[in-house]
UniProtKB/TrEMBL annotation, chain A:
Domain of life: Eukaryota
Keyword Zinc-finger on entry: yes
Compartment(s): Nucleus
Protein name: Anaphase-promoting complex subunit 11
Organism annotation: Eremomyces bilateralis CBS 781.70
Pfam families in the cross-refs: zf-ANAPC11
Record pathway: Protein modification; protein ubiquitination
InterPro entries in UniProt: RING-box_E3_Ubiquitin_Ligase (IPR051031), RING-H2_APC11 (IPR024991), Znf_RING (IPR001841), Znf_RING/FYVE/PHD (IPR013083)
Positions of the RING-type domain: 24-78
UniProt keywords, alphabetically: Cell cycle, Cell division, Metal-binding, Mitosis, Nucleus, Ubl conjugation pathway, Zinc, Zinc-finger
TrEMBL record, chain B:
Domain of life: Eukaryota
Pfam families reported for this sequence: ANAPC2, TPR_ANAPC2
Domain named Cullin family profile: residues: 548-761
Gly residues composition bias: residue spans: 785-795
Similarity field: Belongs to the cullin family.
Record-given protein name: Anaphase-promoting complex subunit 2
Keywords, alphabetical: Cell cycle, Cell division, Mitosis, Ubl conjugation pathway
Gene Ontology MF terms in the entry: ubiquitin protein ligase binding
Native species: Eremomyces bilateralis CBS 781.70
GO BP, one annotated term: ubiquitin-dependent protein catabolic process
Segments for region (Disordered): 26-67, 778-815
Skewed-composition ranges (Low complexity): 53-65
GO CC terms: anaphase-promoting complex
Length: 81, 893
C-alpha cells in the first residue's frame, strides 16, 4: 500500500518566547494576553524588551514612559529605558 | 250523581290526608239530602226571602243561623259537588249553567251574607271547602294515573312525551277544577254593585285564585315527582337549545342526525314554547323552574363552548370570541328570554320586554368568555407546543385574561401542566428549550406586557438551570444552521436533533420581529397599542427582559458561565469546520457582544480572529515553502491559535509521519521568521487529514483524524525498512503490525491506536489477521465484499458532514473526550434501566430502546444506536439479555 498525504490540516499555538507564566510587570496580564487596551494579542499588541532585559507589552511601557514620574526608567529595575 | 255518592270516602280521605296537609281542619263531603238537622226550611225553598229581606235579629241568632247555614251548606256543596271532574276530563259537557236560584241564594248567604264563617269559630268557608274538594278530586281522579306514569322507568327519548302528557293533563285538570271557582263562586263574591271598578274586583278575587292555585300546585308537584320533572325539563331545555343552535352531540355523534332545517327548528321551538306555556299556566313555572332554567342555560353554554362552533381556528388563526359574543347576544340570550316569557305567563304582566339590559348581556358574555377561556387554559400546553398554528387559541384567551381571577387561574393551571408534562426526566433539554421558545412567543402574543410570561417562565428557567447540558445546547443551537437541522430531521438523524433546539436555531436565523422594537416601547407616544401595565405587574418588573427569546436564554445563567460554555463550543466549532468563512460564528459573537457586554467577549473575538488570520499566514508560509521545494506531494495548513484565549485542548502527543513532521518544522521556521519572538507548539491530535491510499486492486481517498492518518501511514510500503522492525521477508509489501508495535513506533496512546485500527478495519483498508495483529488488505476478497468500498471509500466527503455513522462504530473519539467518558460514567444507570425496561415491557428493537433512554434519562442520553448496541452487547455477554437480530429481550435462563 502506498500512502499519500494530500493535505494535513494541523493545529498549533503560538507563544511569546518568554518564560511561561510570566506576566507583564505593568498590567499584570500574561505576555500571551494583551495589554488592558488591546483586543487581539500578537501582532497588534507586541512585547518590548528594554536594555535591562525586562519585557512589557509595548502599549504598557509606552504609556508608562509618557508619565512624567517614570523618568523614562524601567518600572522594574529603575534602569533607563 | 249516583256515581258520586258511591265513592268510598273513607279511603279517599286517607289517601288525601296522607298526601296533603289540609288547608281546613276538617273537610266534609257534600252534605247528602238526608242530612237530619235541616231545620224548618223545606228542601227546595228559596233562601232569598230569608236572607234578602228580613235580617235575623240578635236573639234569633245562633241557633237559627246555624240551621240556615247547614241548609245552605248542604245545598251549595251538593251543587258544587255534582261537578264531575272525571266526566269533564273526558270531554263531557259539565252542567254548570242553569244553577237553581235557591242554590245561588245559598251560596250568596255562605259567601257574602250571614253564612260567612264567624270569627273565632271552626266554620269552614265555602271557598275553602271547594278548594279542598278540588284537591280531593285531583288526588282521586288524576293523581294516581300520573303517579304511575312517573314511577315507571323511561329513557331520555320519552322526556318530551312525559312532559307534554303531564303538562296537558295538569292544564286540563286545573282548568276544570278552577272553573266552578271562577264561574260560580267568584262572580258572587265580586258581584255586589258597590264594586267601583275592575281593580277592586281584582283585589278581592286575586288572593282567592292564587291561594287556590297554590294549593292545587302543591298537589300537582306531589303527583309528578318534582325532582324528576325538573330534571326532565332541564334536559329538554338543553336538548332543544342544542338542536336550535346545531350543537353536535358529544360522545354520541352517531346518535345525532345532521343539522336540522329551518322548518324543523321552528317546529321544535313551537313545541317547546307550547309546553312551557302550559307549565307556566299551571303554576309550575315558579321559582323552581327558574332554577331549572338557570341550570339548563349553564349546561347549554358549556355545550356550545365545547362544540364545533368554538373549535380553535387552526386555519385563519383568528379568535372565536367574537362569534361567541354574537351568539350570546343573538342566540343564547334570546332563547333564555323566550323560555322565561313562556314560564311567566301566570304573572300575566303582559308581554315581556324584548330588549336585554346591557349589563346582563355583558355579564352573560363574560361568563361565556370565562367558560371558553377555562377550556383553552385546560389545553394550553398542547396549544403552546403547536405554536404558531395554535395562534387562534392564544388569541381566544386575550379577552379572557382581562376578567377577574383569570390571570391567576391561567398561570396556576399552566404551571401545573408544565411540571406534569415537561419538567421531568423524560423530556430532553432540547425539548424543554423548544417549548420555552414557544412559550415566550405565545405569551408575547397573549400578554405583550410580559407579566404572565414572567410568571410561567420561572419554573422552566429554574429547571433548565439545573440541567448540565442546557448552556451547551443553547450555544450549539445558536451556532447550528437551522437548515441543517431540518435536513437531519428529514433523513431521520435524530441523534443530532436531540442535542439541538431547532426553535433556538430558527430564532437565530429569523429573529422574532418584536425583539427589534423592544426598546422604549412605553415611551413611544405615537404607539397606538399602548396600554397601562397590568395590575399584577410587580414594581421592579421589566418587560423587555423576558419577551426577547435570545435574551431570555442568555439570562438563564451568569454571564461568566455562559461565556465559558460559549468559548468551549466556539473553539470546537472553529477547529472542526476549518474551511468555513465563519460567517455565522461571527454573527453569534457580535450578538453575544451586544447581549453580554463587549468586554466579556475578548476571548471569542480572539479565537475568531485567529482562525481567519491563520488562513492568511498559511498562504504566506506555504508560498515560501513551495518556492523552495515543489516536489512535496502534500500541503500543510495550520490553525495558529493564541493559546491564552482558547479553551484547554487535547494534548495527546504522537509521532506524525516523517514528511509531515518535516513540513511542520519548516512551517514553524517560516512562522518564527515572520513573527518575531514567537514559538509554535503543535497539537498533533487536532486537525484533519486527507489521505490517498493506493492498494493493489483499488484506491481509497478520504478524510480522517491525524492519529488515524499516522497509523495508516505506518503501513506504508516505504516504512517497513525505516521502522527497523523485523517483518516476514515474504510479505514485505504487506507488513503486519501489532497494537504494541504501533504504540511504540508512533509513541501513541493505546486508545488512539485502537481507534485508528478500527477505523481502517471498518473501511476494509486493514484487516485483523489474528487477534491484535493487523495487515493491509491489498485485495478485497471476491466473495461477499461490499462493493461500496471498491468505489473509493468515503471519497471526498464534504468537510461539514460527518462521515457515515457506521465508519466510526464502537470507537468514537472526538476532539472532546468527555463524550465517551460520560457513557462509561453512567453505564450502570443505563444498564439498569435497559434491563428493567426489557423486563417490564418485553422485547424491544434497539431504536426503541434508544428512544426510551433519550426520553427517560435525566439530562438526556447524548448517544446513538451504536452506544446502545455496545451496552446491549455487554449485557448479552453477561447473559442478562438475549438478542435476536435487532430485537433484544431479557434472558429467561
Ligand atoms: Zn502589559
Ligand atoms: Zn496593547
Ligand atoms: Zn528593567
Amino acid at each position: 500500500m502506498k500512502v499519500t498525504i494530500k493535505r494535513w490540516n494541523a493545529v498549533a499555538a503560538w507563544r511569546w518566547d518568554m518564560p511561561e507564566d510570566d506576566v507583564c510587570g505593568i498590567c499584570r496580564n500574561p505576555y500571551d494576553s494583551t495589554c488592558s487596551k488591546c483586543k487581539y494579542p500578537g501582532d497588534q499588541c507586541p512585547l518590548l524588551m528594554g536594555d535591562c532585559n525586562h519585557s512589557f507589552h509595548m502599549h504598557c511601557i509606552y504609556a508608562w514612559v509618557q508619565q512624567e514620574a517614570s523618568q523614562e526608567r524601567c518600572p522594574m529595575c529603575r534602569q533607563g529605558m | 250523581m249516583a256515581a258520586l255518592h258511591e265513592s268510598p270516602l273513607s279511603r279517599e280521605s286517607l289517601i288525601f290526608s296522607s298526601v296533603f296537609s289540609l288547608s281546613a281542619a276538617t273537610h266534609t263531603t257534600p252534605t247528602p239530602l238526608s242530612t237530619p238537622d235541616l231545620g224548618s226550611i223545606e228542601p227546595g225553598q228559596s233562601f232569598g226571602g230569608v236572607f234578602g229581606s228580613n235580617q235575623p235579629s240578635q236573639q234569633q241568632s245562633a241557633a237559627q243561623r246555624q240551621v240556615r247555614r247547614n241548609l245552605a251548606w248542604s245545598s251549595a256543596t251538593r251543587f258544587l259537588g255534582q261537578f264531575a271532574l272525571e266526566d269533564a276530563m273526558k270531554g263531557r259537557p259539565t252542567e254548570l249553567r242553569g244553577m237553581p236560584s235557591d242554590v245561588r241564594d245559598a251560596m250568596e248567604f255562605l259567601l257574602m251574607g250571614g253564612g260567612c264563617p264567624l270569627p273565632e269559630s271552626n266554620e269552614e268557608s265555602l271557598v275553602d271547602w271547594y278548594t279542598n274538594e278540588a284537591l280531593r278530586r285531583f288526588v282521586v281522579d288524576i293523581s294516581p294515573e300520573l303517579t304511575t306514569k312517573w314511577r315507571a322507568d323511561f329513557d331520555e327519548h320519552s322526556t318530551w312525551h312525559i312532559l307534554i302528557y303531564t303538562t296537558s293533563k295538569l292544564v286540563q285538570a286545573h282548568r276544570h277544577l278552577a272553573q266552578p271557582l271562577k264561574d260560580i263562586l267568584l262572580p258572587i263574591i265580586s258581584r255586589p254593585s258597590r264594586r267601583a271598578d275592575d281593580a277592586i274586583e281584582a283585589l278581592t278575587t286575586l288572593p282567592i285564585i292564587s291561594r287556590f292555585n297554590r294549593e292545587l300546585r302543591a298537589a300537582f308537584v306531589q303527583a309528578v315527582d318534582a325532582g324528576r320533572f325538573a330534571e326532565y325539563l332541564e334536559h329538554l331545555l338543553v336538548d332543544t337549545g342544542r338542536k336550535l343552535f346545531s350543537i353536535e352531540g358529544r360522545g354520541n355523534e352517531n346518535g345525532e342526525g345532521p343539522e336540522l332545517s329551518r322548518e324543523e327548528k321552528q317546529k321544535i321551538r313551537e313545541r317547546l314554547t307550547t309546553l312551557l306555556r302550559g307549565i307556566g299556566s299551571i303554576g309550575l313555572g315558579g321559582d323552581k323552574s327558574t332554577w331549572v332554567v338557570g341550570a339548563a342555560m349553564a349546561k347549554l353554554l358549556d355545550n356550545f363552548v365545547d362544540s364545533r362552533h368554538m373549535k380553535v381556528d387552526w386555519y385563519t388563526r383568528n379568535s372565536v370570541v367574537r362569534t361567541l359574543k354574537h351568539w350570546v347576544k343573538e342566540g343564547y340570550m334570546r332563547y333564555f328570554q323566550e323560555i322565561m316569557a313562556c314560564l311567566e305567563v301566570e304573572s300575566e304582566s303582559g308581554p315581556q320586554p324584548s330588549s336585554i339590559p346591557p349589563a346582563s348581556l355583558q355579564r352573560c358574555q363574560e361568563i361565556a368568555i370565562n367558560r371558553l377561556g377555562r377550556a383553552r387554559v385546560a389545553d394550553l400546553f398542547d396549544f403552546i407546543v403547536r405554536w404558531d398554528g395554535s395562534l387562534g387559541a392564544i388569541r381566544d384567551l386575550k379577552e379572557y385574561i382581562t376578567l377577574p381571577g383569570a390571570r391567576v387561574h391561567l398561570t396556576h393551571s399552566f404551571s401545573r401542566q408544565l411540571s406534569r408534562r415537561l419538567l421531568h426526566a423524560g423530556a430532553t433539554t432540547s425539548d424543554i428549550l423548544d417549548v420555552y421558545v414557544y412559550i415566550i412567543k405565545a405569551f408575547n402574543e397573549l400578554d405583550p406586557k410580559g407579566v404572565l410570561l414572567d410568571r410561567v417562565a420561572r419554573p422552566i428557567r429554574r429547571y433548565l438551570k439545573d440541567r448540565d447540558d442546557t448552556a451547551r445546547i443553547i450555544v450549539v443551537s445558536l451556532l447550528k444552521d437551522v437548515d441543517e437541522i431540518i435536513a437531519d430531521e428529514k433523513t431521520g438523524r435524530l441523534d443530532i436533533g436531540g442535542n439541538v433546539s431547532k426553535q433556538i436555531a430558527l430564532e437565530m436565523k429569523y429573529p422574532s420581529a418584536h425583539a427589534l422594537q423592544e426598546q422604549d416601547y412605553d415611551l413611544d407616544w405615537g404607539n397606538m397599542d399602548w396600554t397601562p401595565d397590568p395590575i399584577d405587574a410587580e414594581p421592579e418588573y421589566k418587560r423587555s427582559k423576558s419577551s426577547d427569546v435570545i435574551a431570555s436564554l442568555l439570562t438563564l445563567y451568569d454571564r461568566e458561565d455562559f461565556i465559558t460554555e460559549l468559548k468551549d463550543i466556539l473553539g470546537e466549532y472553529l477547529l472542526k469546520y476549518e474551511d468555513s468563512d465563519f460567517e455565522k460564528e461571527q454573527r453569534l459573537v457580535e450578538l453575544f457582544k451586544v447581549r453580554l457586554g463587549e468586554d466579556k467577549m475578548q476571548a471569542c473575538e480572539v479565537m475568531l480572529h485567529d482562525v481567519l488570520e491563520s488562513k492568511r499566514i498559511n498562504r504566506d508560509i506555504n508560498a515560501s515553502i513551495n518556492r523552495e521545494n515543489v516536489r512535496l506531494g502534500s500541503e500543510l495548513n495550520a490553525q495558529i491559535l493564541s493559546s491564552y484565549f482558547w479553551p484547554p485542548l487535547r494534548e495527546d502527543a504522537f509521532r506524525v509521519p516523517q514528511p509531515v513532521h518535516a513540513l511542520q518544522q519548516r512551517y514553524a521556521a517560516g512562522f518564527e521568521g515572520i513573527k518575531d519572538m514567537r514559538r509554535l507548539q503543535w497539537y498533533p491530535a487536532l486537525g484533519q487529514v486527507e489521505v490517498e491510499l493506493q492498494l493493489q486492486d483499488r484506491e481509497w481517498r478520504g478524510d480522517c483524524h491525524p492519529w488515524q492518518a499516522s497509523v495508516v501511514y505506518a503501513f506504508d510500503e516505504s516504512i517497513s525498512s525505516i521502522s527497523g522492525l523485523e517483518n516476514d521477508p515474504g510479505r514485505s509489501t504487506t507488513p503486519s503490525r501489532t497494537v504494541e508495535e504501533l504504540k511504540i513506533m508512533l509513541q501513541m496512546d493505546e486508545q488512539l491506536v485502537c481507534n485508528a485500527l478500527q477505523f481502517w478495519t471498518a473501511h476494509r483498508v486493514l484487516v485483523e489477521v489474528s487477534p491484535g495483529i493487523y495487515e493491509v488488505q491489498e485485495t478485497l476478497p471476491a466473495d461477499g465484499g461490499s462493493s461500496g468500498d471498491k468505489a473509493g471509500g468515503s471519497g471526498k466527503s464534504a468537510s461539514r458532514t460527518a462521515p457515515p455513522l457506521h465508519t466510526e462504530t464502537g470507537a468514537h473519539v472526538s476532539a472532546v473526550k468527555s463524550q465517551e467518558d460520560r457513557l462509561m460514567e453512567n453505564v450502570d444507570i443505563y444498564r439498569h434501566f435497559i434491563v428493567g425496561m426489557l423486563t417490564n415491557q418485553g422485547a424491544m428493537p434497539v431504536a426503541k430502546i434508544l428512544m426510551m433512554l433519550k426520553m427517560t434519562m435525566p439530562g438526556g442520553f447524548p448517544f446513538g444506536m451504536e452506544e446502545v448496541r455496545t451496552l446491549l452487547g455487554r449485557l448479552v455477554e453477561e447473559r442478562k439479555v438475549v438478542g435476536q437480530g435487532d430485537i433484544y429481550s431479557v434472558s429467561k435462563g
